[in-house]
């Protein structure tokens, strides 16, 4: 047991930082950003060692976003009260996003397949491309981004099980559960906003 813990030390610490990130994110505390940065850096190491190169690159993206978020919130703009209402994805946006995601999936998959030793290049590419789309949808406060995360996190659980990343598997099981809860909560908010708009409030 101790030997297993020692070999998974970085991954376990990364999971701890990720859970802290989730906690502070829910509480809307600025500490979420340094937690996110630490998690991203550690997971870049974990995914490099596990040959999940696309996931490693994705965490590099998360690192940059965390730095931006920390600066943004430190300047006091993170508490903007004019929060946009939850929206639904329209057909045009869905088509464009789907095309861009497929293109990104194909490019990332080809690169991983031909230039790395990734054991599952196209599965890795799929979760990475979809994660970029989900992140953009989150920024636009589009309800369906939760559905994308549910799919991505569920697939990721299978990949991490395949590679023996058990602490991360548990983390993504929590992510999947939270994504379901997030969808239900955002759906309530969306329905309430529509009702209030219809009532002329």
Task: Offer a concise description of the structure.
The protein is mostly helical and 201 residues long. The chain has helices at 2-7, 9-26, 32-49, 53-74, 91-115, 121-139, 145-163, 166-198. It has two domains: 1-76; 88-201, no CATH class.
Structural write-up:
By secondary structure, this protein is mainly α. It has 2 domains: 1-76; 88-201, no CATH class. It contains 8 helices and no strands. Helix 3 runs antiparallel to helix 4, helix 6 (121-139) packs antiparallel against helix 7 and helix 7 runs antiparallel to helix 8. The radius of gyration is 18 Å and the shape is globular. Mean pLDDT is 82; it is low at 77-83.
Based on helices, strands and strand pairing, what is the structural class?
Answer: mainly alpha
How many strands in all?
A: 0
Helix content: over 70%
Q: Give the terminus-to-terminus CA distance.
A: 60 Å
Q: Which outline best applies? A: globular
Using the CA coordinates, give the radius of gyration: 18 Å
How would a crystallographer describe the biggest sheet?
Answer: none
Low-confidence stretches: 77-83
In the residues, how many domains can be counted? Answer: 2
Q: Helix count, per DSSP?
A: 8
Beta-strand percentage? under 5%
Mean pLDDT, all residues = 82
- SSE ordering: HHHHHHHH
């Amino acid at each position: 047991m101790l030997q297993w813990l020692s070999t998974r030390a970085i991954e376990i610490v990364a999971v701890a930082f990720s859970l802290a990130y989730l906690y502070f994110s829910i509480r809307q505390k600025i500490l979420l950003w340094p937690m996110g940065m630490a998690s991203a850096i550690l997971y870049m190491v974990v995914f490099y060692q596990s040959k999940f190169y696309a996931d490693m690159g994705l965490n590099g993206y998360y690192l940059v976003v965390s730095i931006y978020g920390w600066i943004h919130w430190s300047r006091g703009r993170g508490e903007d009260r004019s929060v946009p209402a939850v929206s639904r994805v329209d057909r045009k946006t869905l088509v464009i996003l789907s095309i861009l995601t497929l293109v990104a999936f194909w490019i990332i998959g080809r690169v991983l397949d031909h230039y790395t030793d990734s054991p599952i290049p196209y599965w890795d590419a799929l979760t990475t491309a979809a994660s970029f789309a989900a992140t953009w949808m989150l920024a636009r406060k589009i309800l369906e981004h939760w559905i994308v995360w549910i799919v991505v996190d569920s697939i990721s659980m299978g990949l991490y099980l395949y590679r023996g990343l058990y602490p991360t598997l548990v983390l993504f099981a929590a992510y999947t559960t939270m994504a379901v809860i997030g969808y239900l909560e955002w759906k309530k908010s969306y329905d309430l906003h529509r009702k209030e708009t219809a009532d002329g409030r």
